[in-house]
Amino acid sequence: MSDHVRIFDTTLRDGEQSPGCSMSMAQKLAMARALDELGVDVIEAGFAAASPDDFAAVQAIAAAVRGASVAALARCQRGDIERAAAALEQAAAPRIHVFIATSDIHLTHKLRISRAEALEAAVAGVELARRYCSDVEFSAEDASRSDPAFLAEVFSAAIEAGASTLNVPDTVGYAIPAQYGALFAYLKANVRGIERAVLSSHCHDDLGLAVANSLAAIENGARQVECTINGIGERAGNAALEEIVMALRTRANHFGVGTRIRSERLYPTSRQLVSLTGSAVARNKAIVGENAFAHESGIHQHGMLRHRETYEIMRPEDVGVSRSQLVLGKHSGRAALADRLKALGFELDEAALNQAFAAFKALADKKKEVFDADLEAIALGQNTGEQGPWRLLAAQIQGAIGRDAVPSASVRLAHEDGRVVQEAAVGDGPVHAIFAAIERATGTPVRLTQYLVRSLSTGEDAQGEARVEGEVEGMELRGRAVSTDVLEASALALIEVINRAERRRIAQPSAEAVA
Ligand code: KIV
Ligand code: ZN
Fold first, then answer.
1. Pair 66, 90: CB distance under 8 Å
2. Ligand 1 closest atom vs CA 169
3. Best label site of 24, 173, 258, 332, fewest CB within 10 Å?
4. What is the CATH number of domain 298-380?
């Protein structure tokens, strides 16, 4: 068995089920393709039995992905396993991932079954999954709070029943590195047949230790890590894929094992996820945050100029972050754009490149200098697979300054069902007025929880990025848009929130959520 660390990406399952990160089927497909391109070993595409939509998404990803294995999650229940198997029928390398809790707290209060019953269900689940698929993973939910001896007994039985990957979730983010690492060492020594299986970590970040715990697991024999792009996931999130990969690479002298990830795709993949979900990463986020490679202090800059390694342990280009700033202008051609996009990590197909070029020309007409950040926004716009139903046709804003002034806005929106709606509203300011007009036109009130605008590059004509977070009928949703006009960006970001709400309403909420 190869000694590399397998990267099991669960962005589309554990990540996607967290608030603000839900994706449409087209978006999930776009993300799955990006993950395949990144070089992950396994893509967990979803929980097929949760809803018809989840099933369709797993099925579409299974049919599209040809490099990575595609996994579907299932409880140790016949219905779930059969749905997972059916959704994976067209996968080149399918994996069924079955799970059941093993901690006493989950057995007593959630499942209300005994340890013996959990063991029996685990074995039956693995055996049934093996009838459909030669690659079966077994997860012991809440493993880090389970009795290690019982866990070893369940894992031994799961191997005997045919599981080839055994996952040790720290479901509630309770573990600390030394203890989680020791649990792997214990399992290595006490699970029968462990030499025929891969041990896997799955960490949540409630104590901010998900990556540290995953690395401790690797030090103690784990050869699969479950993680997500940007660390998105339930509550505080899952272990961040990019941090684990770069820790293993940067400290290869310590760990002595690597991954098969194309690290220069890390940043573009991270940006793609942000663009698809509207869920931003913190500026100071390791590896993919905006400040991750920025040196502000004079002393640091001076040191960097003399010798890069004084203050830099990784090269930005190794994770796909470009150092160059000023790039193309109005007279640049299609080939120059394709070249620059490629250097930024975006290889667009013919049709997407044509669209990107049209968008680039339109932007270059509006602003003198087109920066990498602008190009990235254009490229991501081509990749999102984002759809309506609402589209902004026109907006007019009447700004006003002074005590008695009343800013107003009118908007014209088209719905994909053929309606064209026009509405006007007044507000405390121009943004308030345009938001009120959009909400009135679409008939969708949004309770705004966050609104941010920032400049993507420099100069008076820089593009502005607007981010809107809001609640619609109890759903927490996000939208993001970019334009040289911040009011237009704001309007488009709010429309994205409303579109997400409408698409979710149509799709029906999922039948069940899992850990
Ligand atoms: O956190 C968890 O326990 C999970 C399992 C279903 C693998 O996500
Ligand atoms: Zn989880």
1. no
2. 3
3. 258
4. 1.10.238
